[in-house]
């Protein structure tokens, strides 16, 4: 055992010596790495042979890159692209990425392989709207856009991609949803609603540059459209210059001013476009007495009036003053002391929070007009209607209403795209061929060219090219004579421009068509078919049949009784006067100064004119204007119509604003009867005698200028209708 310990000690000593040697000895020198052989020099690429077969590079220069580089779409420093740079995380959220980044747009389109129609992931910061955002496989066939209202506009072509971003982010639907969410009802429109989830009702912002919403008007419902009102549809300019890319360079985004100059004199810059005003916009919209100023200034005038109404309403009705700042979110702020300055709290602007339902609608429309700086050109009439209606609505509760007495909402009839004459077929999506000639922009040229019409899309009123031959601009289409519903061919003279007016202002019925409808039924027989169903229905002459009235018995527009003689063309026609010599062809207003040369009474109004003697209506007043004679005789005819109907079948009542105009009034209370479902009951108990008289009554109502167009002719048919019904004509005189 002792020897083992000795041996172990020897080993420990040896180990200590080894360790000591390791600590004191110099380290051994490392073996150097071998030097790598030099990389061989690559030979130069062979020069492309000078031959036709040598392919050109796929892209030498990016097309339109220089234009795009200087555009707003590439402004990398703009708030539109840097707004999220300081966020955590620094990314463009899915709710904004579609229009504020290229990856977001590709995501929305599905061009990145994701599902189309939504942005699935937030986009990285640092991009603008780059080439591929608009030029990719997904946009090649894109031709429709769904607006915030849910309305889908189709058939757009290349401008569809523009409208994905230039459509706004709110609509009438958004406002209505907000009001519903806060429990606002028609009865509580002027009350500040209680907060929901501790949040008061706030302002709804349409967002910026919503040009597409302005352009498509009521179709897109970008503005708040009030119930019971109708609004203009898409603003139609001229073919090829009525789209985003028809008016703007799609890369630089600049307006094609040189194109505007083709028709708009005095336009040398974009700023000059504010002075543009066309013959389809001749009303004094803002009521300042200036009908020559550009539409921009009309719109601006109404906007100033609306802001005044908003501030008055906020102070007097909502109870808290309000002020607007276009450059600061959320745009409307509190001004409790009424000093015109934004109230501050801890150094911050105080957002307005006393919104009522009525104020929210008006404030939203004000913002709509502000955030599309080109609204006057994109759809000025639509914006004018929104502003006017907002003022009108606020006025209903303002202690001191804003004066709208000289302002106007609508255009002259030919250009009133918001009226029933042009909006009637919106639900169907097309104007049928039987109506297109007079109720569309391109129907009349089609008829003149082909002597026939076809169905066409609903119009926003007439265009310049409706009457002016585009191929021979600015000449009017040439019409030598016009065929009326009676079959008569009439004219103001070969090639006279007023013949164009007769194409539509002739009515759609006549003595001939009424007789054809009546057939062989006896005068006082309720006309029934063999199965007992009504065989007769009301025949409507249609509207503004001034041409038929002017030509009297030559046109036979009214129902002329057998054995009676009737006046022909008004003497004015024989003297060379026609539609265009008495009316402004664009504003449609009567040239009163022309009338005054022969009719001094016109200073009291056209209705005061009298050019013949006699007390025709039997009211004892032989000095009243012919308009008064026609009005009273028409009233007497209506009374006879009601008496005859009640005596022979069932009571009747007339409503000039509702087709088919004559309705049942079985209890004689003067109101239209309704069936079990609440629908009005149209009159069906027609006898030939009643139909003839009702037709003539409607004729007198649907030409409001009948007293001037051919008053004595109209008096003759009214007199004869009263007499045929068995009415008392004692004291009356038939011209």
Q: Features of this protein?
A:
two-stranded antiparallel ribbon, elongated, disordered N terminus, 735 residues, 27 helices, mainly alpha
Care to describe what's here?
This protein is mainly alpha-helical and about 725 residues long. It has 4 domains: about 65-140, no CATH class; about 165-320 and about 355-420, no CATH class; about 320-350, no CATH class; about 480-490 and about 505-650 and about 685-725, no CATH class. Helices cover about 35% and strands about 5% of the residues. The chain has a two-stranded antiparallel sheet. It has a two-stranded antiparallel sheet with strand order 3-4. The chain is elongated, with a radius of gyration of 38 Å.
The computed structural class is mainly alpha
User: Regarding quaternary structure, how should these chains be classified?
Assistant: single chain
Shape: elongated
- In the predicted model, the low-confidence regions spanning at least 5 consecutive residues are 1-27
Mean pLDDT: 92
Q: Given the structure, what is the number of helices?
A: 27
Total domain count: 4
Strand order of the largest sheet: 1-2
